[in-house]
Amino acid sequence: MKIVLIRHLESIANVKRCYAGWTDVNLTQEGLEKGIKLRKLYGNLKLDEFLFVSSSLSRATKTMEILFPGKHYTKNDGLRETNFGIFEMKTYDELKDQEEYQKWISGNFVSNQAPLGESYLMMQDRVLKSFKKLLSLNKDLVIVTHAGPIGVIMRYIMNDINDNIFYYDCPNGLGYIIDYNKKDYTKISE
Domains of the chain (ranges plus CATH)? Predict the structure, then answer.
């Protein structure tokens, strides 16, 4: 089984460097232009028989539509980024002096829950539940999602779920091509 994981193209939140988990934000003009350039790269991968799935957030669905025009795909709420609750659309500089924020980022970042949002572990459970359902279809997959879910899926596949949660970070519009059966992967590069 082959799996192609792609992080959505650059969004306005990426440029502003703010937390944008479940907030629907637009892609930047630069992101749109990069997507058009990457279309050829992904077109060369021979993905015709793959099942195409996207996070339900518009930055992911628009990425899917730009990279794979005309392809039928399904939207999956389980593949959304972490819900950052009251910290959504705020930057570190805006939050750094707030007691609630300091409580959230200090200590065990993985299990600390953002007020009115999720913890990393809650997101991980949600993503893995959705991903395992997709695996049960026994089809090759193209998944367009977010940095957090990509890290979760990669650690699951590579059997290092408790490793550095940022290890599999990747640039917008890129990601990984995975041979699920061999537990092997290559990074997608421009």
Answer: 2-16+27-81+124-187 (3.40.50.1240)
